Amino acid sequence: MSGGRTSAKGSAMIYLIAAIAGLAGALFGFDEGVIAGALAPLRRDLGIDPVAEGMMTAAVPFGAFIGAIVGGRLAAAAGRRKLLLWSAILFIGGALLSALAGGLITLTLARLVIGLAVGVAAMMAPLYISESAPAKERGMLVSIYQLAITLGILGAYVVGYAFDENWRWMFAMGAVPAVLLFGGIFALSDTPRWLAMRGRSAEAKAALARMRERPESDPAVAAEYEEIRAAAAADEGRKATFADLLSPRVRPALIVAMGLFLLQQLSGINAVIYYAPTVFELSGFSSTTTQILATAGIGVVNVLMTVVGMMLIDRLGRRLLLLIGFAGTAVSLGAIAIAAATGSPSLGVLALAGLVLYIASFAIAIGPLPWVMMSEVFPLDCRALGMSIASLVNWGFNFIVVFSFPVLVAEFGLAGVFGLYAVVCVAGLAFTQWLVPETNGVSLEEIERHLRSGRPLRELGRLHAA
Questions:
Q1: Which residues cross the membrane (predicted)?
Q2: Is 241 exposed, middle or buried (0-12, 13-18, 19+ CB in 10 A)?
């Protein structure tokens, strides 16, 4: 019988672990969202043009691109815990340097440091949670990372409103959750799967027992540990290479992980998050305060619908939620594009309603599921490297979207840009229908066995259900 069917229900300890690791997501969200409130005073104080604005804003995803490379190379040897500790240190340093920046170059470098931290933590936090969680609740627990992102974004909007024109204090506040992340991760051990992979069997079994809040002699703990140990033994001595990722065994997982992040980014989410006040300004909201309040309202919807998605992810499954999400985002972006193209007098209302529907559709599916599935679909020996490559796609296209948005809007207008994003969401429907498997309730070891079998990855959910 598979570990997906025998894993114990999650203990309070695993929720604590997920919450601590999720602080990395809160930092990611905060450092993305804080720029929305800071841009207006930064434009005034530093006199930045659209190209310089794009570079400074996009420094975070560019740094994250580099961080993903570093994290992928070091994850197997250094472990998940140690890399999360280093990312927390970078978050603290980047926040303080941003607050003290004397000019645009220093601020851009500070944002680059934050990006490095984001790139490492965005790999390690979902991986840490996924490798610690019981199979039946893995989707919901990994989604805590995405929930934390939305809470971080909302917190950034609140900070932007509270500190109004003081961008230095806005940036400085990012050090607070970074200190909490460092303290929380410092108190935890590494994941049972990484410890088993490194041959540290006694530590691995003890860590698993702690996470399940059961004695090591408990039959359920012993059975789960044996499955982890067997998978680690099967991968023993292997060092994943890029050629392994392109092998018939792993290539389907790579396509799914990369494809979902590509679609997530090209749906335009980070253009909306970074530039939401600008979108509302273009839609007729003239007051800066009104723009920030409307943006904060979008942040509230983002949080609430992420909670809804967490409740549904292990009930409805991954594929159905993705189909719902891509359909909702395509409709909402298309409606905004049409209203903007026709010069509708109700553009402001339609933009607000469209963005609410867009964020709601994104939050229940397109936001959390690429992170969840990235941490699930790769076999243990290729997991860190595969997640690194998927993260590169994520951060590479995040950078392109954020950097290009102000330039594209100036060239093609809001209608052209949102119309393009809508077409991407339609493509997401086809990609999900044809290629994405159902991993709901399936243990990581069972997913790995399916990959080794040579059967199409998209059949996984149907075979498991049968």
A1: 12-30, 50-71, 83-103, 109-129, 141-163, 169-188, 253-276, 292-313, 320-341, 347-372, 384-408, 414-436
A2: exposed
- Tokens at 73, concatenated: 């190379």
**How far is it, in rounded angstroms, from Cα 311 to Cα 315?**
7
The two structure tokens encoding residue 184: 């929380």
In this prediction the pTM is 0.75
Cβ pair 89, 200 in contact under 8 A: no
Q: Which residues contact 111 (CB under 8 A, 6 or more apart)?
A: 31, 56, 57, 59, 60, 63, 94, 98
Instruction: Convert 338-368 into a string of H (helix), E (strand) and C (coil).
Output: HHHHHCCCCHHHHHHHHHHHHHHHHHHHHCC
269-282 vs 347-361: helix axis angle to the nearest 10?
A: 170
**How much is the pLDDT for 96?**
96
CB-count burial class (<10 Å; 0-12, 13-18, 19+) for 172: middle
26 to 122, 223, 256: CA distances (angstroms): 10, 34, 25
Nearest alpha carbon to residue 268 among 313, 333, 328: 333
Structure tokens at 124: 């390690």
b/e sequence 409-436, b meaning 16+ C-beta within 10 Å: beeeebbebbbebbebbebbbebbeeeb
Read off the DSSP letter of residue 378. S
And the tokens for 36? 């929305």
Q: Residue 17 contacts by C-beta under 8 Å, 6 or more apart in sequence?
A: 128, 129, 132, 188, 211
For residue 461, the model assigns a pLDDT of: 67
Rg (CA), the chain: 21
Q: For residues 326 and 433, is the Cβ–Cβ distance under 8 A?
A: no
State the residue for tokens 């792993």.
Answer: 250
pLDDT reported for residue 268: 85
Integer Cα distance of 22 and 125 in angstroms: 7
Q: What local confidence, expressed as pLDDT, does residue 5 receive? A: 39
Query: Which tokens is 160 given?
Result: 């932007």
Residue 187's CB is within 10 A of a number of other CB atoms, namely 8
Tokens 């991993």 belong to 439
Residue 2's pLDDT is: 38
Sign of CA dihedral 230, 231, 234, 236: negative
- CA angle (414 as vertex; 409, 416 as ends), nearest 5: 90
CA distance 27 to 22: 9
Which regions of the chain are under pLDDT 50? 1-9, 463-466
Which pLDDT belongs to residue 252?
Answer: 93
Sign of the CA dihedral 149, 379, 386, 328?
A: negative
pLDDT score, position 283: 60
CB 272 within 8 A of CB 358: yes
d(CA 392, CA 109): 20
Burial pattern 143-154, b for ≥16 Cβ within 10 A else e, equals: bbbbbbbbbbbb
